[in-house]
Inverse folding.
């Protein structure tokens, strides 16, 4: 699967080092709140909520946090006025960037996003500028040294579409997003819980960047990730090393 491994690995290392669990939990809870508000509090009858809860559980969000997020979505409390918006643009060097936000103030969010693109050598694009380059996929990640044969067997049994070994030894199980829960349950049932499980966007083509533009792009990506209203950031940038971890 093209256009993901280098940025995904950078994200993965950065998340371990910075330990941004609080920010992650906040984003997962907001997603649950919005899903509950849109489709009701019952995950059996609300597929969006069911997926949001599974994603949260995969990241070890406590049950109490999940229940409070659902309650906020159905009671009209804090977070009830959040809406989902997406923005598309380009980094320095022309790599595509797609981001998904949950916001209660579109003007504030677009101003912050536009400032980041301008500050770091990119530009904010129009709707549809880069979204066609990305496909939604469920990804279950295992660290190097994991039992690939056992993972493949469990993944096939659970209905996954593919198992990929990256250059660094990381193993990824890929599946249709609609099968996220089924595949995750199959992997756990085989006593092979993934290190990370998510529904994400993967680019169909890479955009290689030189060292200078890689540094600019990385600063932009980190700026966008740190914005409170931003839920997810995806890119097809193929980054060169720009310093130590």
């Amino acid at each position: 699967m093209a256009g993901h491994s280098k940025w995904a690995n950078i994200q993965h290392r950065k998340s371990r080092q910075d330990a941004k669990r609080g920010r992650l939990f906040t984003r997962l809870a907001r997603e649950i709140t919005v899903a509950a508000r849109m489709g009701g509090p019952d995950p059996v009858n609300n597929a969006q909520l069911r997926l949001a809860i599974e994603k949260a559980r995969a990241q070890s969000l406590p049950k109490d946090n999940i229940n409070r997020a659902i309650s906020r979505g159905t009671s009209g409390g804090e977070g009830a006025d959040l809406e989902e918006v997406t923005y598309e643009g380009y980094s320095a060097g022309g790599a595509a960037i797609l981001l998904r936000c949950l916001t209660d103030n579109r003007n504030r969010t677009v101003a912050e996003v536009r400032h980041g693109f301008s500050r770091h050598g990119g530009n904010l694009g129009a709707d549809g500028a880069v979204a066609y380059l990305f496909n939604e996929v469920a990804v279950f990640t295992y660290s190097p040294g994991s039992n690939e044969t056992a993972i493949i067997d469990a993944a096939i049994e659970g209905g996954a579409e593919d198992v990929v070994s990256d250059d660094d030894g990381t193993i990824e199980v890929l599946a249709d997003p609609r099968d996220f829960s089924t595949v995750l349950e199959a992997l756990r049932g085989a006593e092979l819980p993934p290190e990370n499980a998510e529904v994400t966007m993967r680019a169909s083509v890479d955009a290689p960047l030189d060292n200078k533009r890689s540094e600019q792009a990385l600063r932009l990506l980190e700026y966008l990730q740190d914005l409170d209203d931003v839920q997810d950031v995806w890119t097809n940038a193929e980054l060169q090393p720009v310093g130590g971890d």
Observations:
- The longest strand covers residues 134-142.
